[in-house]
Amino acid sequence: ATNITWHSSHVDRTDRERHLNQRGVTLWFTGLSGSGKSTIATALERELLLHHKKATYVLDGDNIRHGLCKDLGFGPTDRQENIRRIGEVC
Q: What percent of the chain lies above the pLDDT cut of 70?
């Protein structure tokens, strides 16, 4: 589209990291369906938040498919688009 404009934030990554006293990172758990990715991710989220006072957020693949990627199936092309969209969010 040609009628869109990028709007910069008044808070940059350095400001955010300094304020939260932590660096921003993305951990992407991969593996077969039912292999425990969500279980590990949510346990880590709880540990980091409650015991280490680190702000966290889990983007669960199934949850993403209920919204952002609800129009996609599980064929190779749709899986690739699913990953592309999640990468944009991260």
A: 100
Displacement of CA 50 from its chain's centroid (Å): 20
Alpha helix (H) residue ranges in the chain? 13-20, 37-52, 61-66, 76-89
Kindly tell me the sign of the dihedral angle through the C-alpha atoms of 88, 42, 32, 34.
negative
Q: Is the pTM of this model over 0.85?
A: no
Angle of CA points 49, 85, 81, to nearest 5°: 135
Cα(58)–Cα(71) distance, integer angstroms = 21
Amino acid at 89: V
What are 9-32's pLDDT values in tens digits? Answer: 999 999 999 999 999 999 999 999
Closest C-alpha to 55, from 15, 33, 22, 78: 22
